[in-house]
Amino acid sequence: MIDCHVHLWDPAEGFPWIRPGGEHHHTFGEGDLERSGAGLDLTGAVLVEASRGDAGETHALRGLRLRRPDLVAGYVANLHVHGGDGPGPFRLLLHEWGASRPNGMRLGGASWTDTPEPARALVPVLAEEGLVLELNLRQGALTAAAGVAARHPELTVVVDHLGNPPDLRLPAADQWYRDIERAAATPNVVVKISGLLTQQYGTPPGRVAHMVRHVVDTLGPDRCLIGSDWPICLPRGSRADSLAMSRPGLAHLTGDQRERVLHTTPVRVYDLGGDRPRG
User: Fold this and answer.
1) Which residues have CB under 8 Å from 108's CB, separation 6+?
2) What is the DSSP string of the chain?
3) Across all residues in the chain, what is the average pLDDT?
4) How far, CA to CA in Å, does 225 sit from each of 4, 15, 228, 257?
5) Rounded mean pLDDT, 186-196
6) First vs last Cα of the chain: how many Å apart?
7) According to the model, what pLDDT value does residue 174 have?
């Protein structure tokens, strides 16, 4: 299994969203990541930027990917911090890094229109270069993903955390189910089943399983990924606990279909096939 959503950070290096004394105000390094995966039968992880706020985080993620390919299968960097230089220099940077460039770039915010225009201007470069655009929007993520994917058919758009659905016990969840069905109509949208332990903590397990099953059945196993969101999940449970929340919703799949969700699809989506040179 490839865990498609993990983070590392040291609060001393920035990360303004991590508040002193808060639950996440601890350093999480590669040793912590390795220990958290013990006994989980993982073949790697996709390391996702954690909003440090500068391009130095991209370089740090790249360095760890090169140093520990046994632990980090790929990485997703922050698109915001590269927007200021414009499309031309961004393209040149990707070419300079070659095979060690990011496997994807993440764009986040309250909604698509709240993301910085200079960062959005880099999306065509991602499409040209074959890099994933990853979206983490608090509102309208699935709708935005479908719109961007339709404008750039050659671009793969990954939606983090199932599009940040509301509490499944609330009526607002009905709209999320409809948005999943609309997103499924755009074939280059992929949904990451992650953040369950944080977002749906306390929700009856049957409802969570129904949600996961709905996503997999609607999009198909070739358009779904699984991620723990470690160490964000730790106030609610371990990395193992987080990954386990998705399993009941996958129980109806055949062995081949589960293998596609857990391994084959992330390898294809993030281009983790092992043919990238080291360096």
Assistant:
1) 51, 80, 115, 135, 136, 137
2) -EEEEE--B-GGG--TTS-TTSTT-S-B-HHHHHHHTTTS---EEEEE----SSTHHHHHHHHHHHH-TTTEEEEEEESGGGGGG-HHHHHHHHHHHGGGS-SEEEEEESSGGGS-HHHHTTHHHHHHHTPEEEEEESSSHHHHHHHHHHH-TT--EEEGGGG----TTSTTHHHHHHHHHHHHTSTTEEEEE--HHHHSTTS-HHHHHHHHHHHHHHH-GGGEEE---BTTTTTT--HHHHHHTTGGGGTTS-HHHHHIIIIIHHHHHTT-SS-S---
3) 94
4) 7, 26, 10, 12
5) 97
6) 25
7) 87
Other C-beta atoms within 10 Å of 90: how many? 22
Answer for the pair 136, 108: CB distance below 8 angstroms, yes or no: yes
- Stated pTM of the model: 0.95
Q: Which two structure tokens, joined as six digits, stand for 110? A: 């309250």
Q: How far apart are CA 272 and CA 263, in angstroms?
A: 10
Confidence (pLDDT) at 28: 97
Please tell me the predicted confidence (pLDDT) of residue 279.
Answer: 38
CB neighbour list of residue 210: distance below 8 Å, 6 or more residues apart: 249
Q: How far from 168 is each of 163, 177, 203, 268, CA to CA, in Å? A: 13, 10, 7, 30
Tokens found for residue 135: 């979206």
